[in-house]
């Protein structure tokens, strides 16, 4: 089996494909930065994002990514900071509210339960052709 290569989304280096979009070195650095944020929030729970960024040296953009990845969450009092990407409802962590996430999961389950209802043609019905790109 051939290993696949990817370009790191942070530094651009080529690396063997893993489940992450970043190379092992950038992943290590990202993990270290997350630990700084995590430790700061343990000592000072309820801190605002700009304060966490200022004291840890971790960018606000990166902290927002940690929120979207579900690694940290917002306290109840600041619920309007992060919103569902689909409907705009305030959320504490992640990308989607529980209702949109549940709808998405239900849709996926239905598609897997009844694949013939999909508008896509089955693999055996799809037509192909050769693209001659050596002109």
Overview of this protein structure:
It is built from 4 helices and 4 strands, in the order ββαααββα. The chain has 2 domains: 1-72, no CATH class; 76-117, no CATH class. The model has no long low-confidence stretch (mean pLDDT 84). The protein is mainly alpha-helical and 135 residues long. 39% of the residues lie in helices and 7% in strands. Strands 1-2 form a two-stranded antiparallel sheet.
Break the fold down into its secondary structure elements and pairings.
Elements: E1 5-7, E2 14-16, H1 24-43, H2 49-56, H3 60-68, E3 82-83, E4 90-91, H4 98-113
Antiparallel strand pairs: 1-2, 3-4
What attributes does this structure have?
135 residues, 2 domains, two-stranded antiparallel ribbon, 4 helices, flat
Q: Describe the global form.
A: flat
Note the gap between the termini: 31 Å
Q: What class, by secondary structure content?
A: mainly alpha
The largest pleated sheet is described as: 2 strands, antiparallel
Helix-strand sequence: EEHHHEEH
Q: How many strands in all?
A: 4
Q: How many structural domains?
A: 2
SS field, number of helical segments: 4
